[in-house]
Design goal:
Length: about 220
């Protein structure tokens, strides 16, 4: 009788130990996983602003503006530039571009600045623009990047063309400054200083700016 009682006690203790080990095993196989906070919701007006443009010559996808600080989303602001309406102002250090309007207002765009974007400053004018332009890299760029040799005589328009769907060409007097405002599909480049190119805007933004600017409009570039 005594041995039977001890056996039952051992069995109960053994079962309890197994239960504890089982619970311990569950704890070790289900570690806590850090929860990534959701991205801030993009207001519907901005989703519409940067939506796909299927009717362009080359259909444009929606811009990934969740990758960009909202300060660089297109927005109407107070004109703090001191420039008269109808002027393009590029604030290079802030990575912002302004199109000045009536009543003390301005349309502000986020931009990315490349090496060539730091090469010129001052006052000039928008000589002309092109829709879906051909891109011809300068000889100096081809010397730096020999892989561009196939495009010495021009790269045909396309989504991958470095100028994108629109380009504005800046002159000073009768001289081409080689300074350009153009499109770029990589949202991550907006607000950044990138490796090459001049001043780049999201496709949707450069199309909007292109529709506002008149040839001969003054431009001021601040370094």
């Amino acid at each position: 009788m005594h041995s039977h009682t001890i056996s039952r006690r051992h069995m109960m203790l053994g079962a309890s130990s197994l239960a504890v080990l089982a619970l311990a095993g569950c704890a070790t196989t289900t570690p806590k996983v850090p929860v990534t906070p959701p991205s801030p919701a993009i207001p519907p007006e901005y989703r519409a602003m940067y939506a796909a443009l299927p009717n362009e010559r080359f259909p444009i996808p929606a811009a990934d503006i969740h990758l960009i600080d909202p300060i660089y989303w297109r927005q109407e602001v107070t004109n703090t530039t001191g420039e008269k309406p109808g002027t393009v102002v590029v604030d290079t250090p802030s990575r912002l571009l302004y199109w000045t309007m009536e009543d003390g207002r301005a349309m502000r765009y986020g931009v990315g600045i490349g090496r060539d974007g730091f090469a010129w400053e001052g006052r000039g004018h928008v000589a002309y623009g092109r829709e879906w332009p051909t891109w011809t890299p300068p000889s100096e760029m081809i010397d730096r990047q020999p892989e561009l040799e196939p495009y010495r005589h021009g790269m045909e328009p396309a989504l991958e063309n470095p100028l994108g769907p629109r380009a504005l060409y800046i002159h000073q007097g009768n001289r081409d400054t080689l300074y350009r405002l153009h499109g770029n599909m990589d949202a991550r480049s907006i607000g950044q200083a990138v490796s090459s190119g001049c001043v780049r805007l999201l496709f949707q933004d450069v199309i909007d700016l292109y529709g506002r600017v008149r040839w001969g409009a003054p431009i001021v570039v601040v370094q």
